[in-house]
């Protein structure tokens, strides 16, 4: 039995799951380190032939700062119609549109816009993955839907935006997590260093999603998801609860 971790073989399995919608078997051997997980992320991008430019801030095990490079093809505009698996979940987030590589000490001049956004998450594995397997699979990210610009972000943002989330017109009772802008900017400085180390330095136009303010919450059989915060809005239509993984 060969226990040497093969990032390219793992990526092949995950790319097949992306393209066919058929769940991937658990990676065996499993990634043993974050270095393994990042190697899978990079190998997935190479196999997809996607330029990237989309980043997800994440906490491994809810504690350690990590990230994922996401395909440019994962981006969609508000109002998009996406085919999603029945177990897909929605998160309401903010997305930073970069004006430049922010470097180690970002400020608001590094940002071109801050948008309200949905992230859709759904594991591509047949069984619940370990934290490192989920990290290898872009932390379960399926799609990012960009909504409107949050007003007056240039003056800073409140820790909570007063987000209202509705599914099929029904308001969802959910607690919004506090996301101080200072914490986000500190993480962005970390991401700038990480992206350079991955050979993908941040640049103008890159999109960075900053973590769930609400969710993840099951979409279940909902066909329309919408959220509003400070007059910014984002909307998504789900084509079918039993559809293939990924975007249409």
Mean pLDDT: 94
The helix/strand class is alpha+beta
- Helix content estimate: 10-25%
User: What string, H for helix and E for strand, traces the elements in order?
Assistant: HHEEEEEEHEEEHEEEE
How many structural domains are formed by the residues? Answer: 1
CATH class: Alpha Beta
Number of H/I helices: 4
Compute the number of strand runs: 13
| Percent of residues in beta strands | 25-35%
Predict the CATH topology.
Fumarylacetoacetate hydrolase, domain 2
Architecture, according to CATH? Alpha-Beta Complex
Unreliable residue runs: 241-248
Q: What is the C-alpha radius of gyration, as a whole number of Å?
A: 17 Å
Q: Sum up the overall morphology in one term.
A: globular
Major sheet attributes: 8 strands, mixed
- End-to-end Cα distance: 39 Å
Could you state the CATH homologous superfamily? Fumarylacetoacetase-like, C-terminal domain
Can you walk me through this structure?
- This is Hydratase.
- This protein is globular.
- Helix content is 21%, strand content 31%.
- The strands form 2 sheets. Strands 1, 2, 3, 5, 6, 7, 10 and 11 form an 8-stranded mixed beta sheet that branches.
- It has helices at residues 7-20, 34-48, 131-136, 181-197; strands at 54-60, 64-70, 75-77, 80-82, 89-98, 111-121, 141-149, 164-167, 170-171, 207-209, 214-218, 224-229, 232-238.
- 43% of the residues are buried.
- It has 248 residues and is of the alpha+beta class.
- The protein contains 4 helices and 13 strands.
């Amino acid at each position: 039995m060969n226990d040497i971790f093969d990032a390219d073989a793992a990526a092949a399995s995950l790319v097949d799951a992306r393209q066919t919608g058929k769940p991937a078997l658990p990676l065996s051997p499993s990634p043993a380190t974050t270095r393994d997980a990042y190697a899978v992320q990079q190998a997935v991008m190479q196999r997809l032939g996607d330029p990237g430019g989309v980043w997800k801030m994440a906490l491994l095990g809810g504690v350690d700062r990590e990230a994922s490079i996401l395909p440019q093809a994962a981006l969609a505009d508000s109002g998009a119609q996406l085919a999603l698996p029945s177990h897909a979940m929605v998160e309401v987030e903010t997305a930073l549109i970069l004006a430049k590589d922010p470097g180690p000490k970002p400020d608001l001049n590094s940002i071109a816009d801050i948008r309200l956004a949905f992230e859709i998450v759904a594991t591509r594995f047949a069984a619940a993955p370990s934290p490192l397997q989920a990290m290898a699979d872009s932390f379960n990210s399926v799609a990012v839907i960009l909504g409107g610009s949050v007003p007056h972000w240039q003056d800073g943002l409140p820790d909570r935006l007063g987000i209202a989330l509705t599914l099929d017109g029904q308001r969802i009772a959910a607690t919004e997590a506090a996301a101080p802008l200072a914490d986000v900017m500190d993480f962005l400085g970390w991401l700038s260093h990480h992206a350079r180390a991955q050979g993908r330095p941040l640049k103008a136009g890159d999109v960075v999603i900053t973590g769930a303010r609400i969710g993840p919450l099951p979409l279940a059989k909902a066909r329309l998801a919408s959220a509003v915060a400070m007059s910014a809005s984002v909307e998504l239509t789900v084509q079918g609860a039993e559809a293939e993984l990924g975007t249409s």
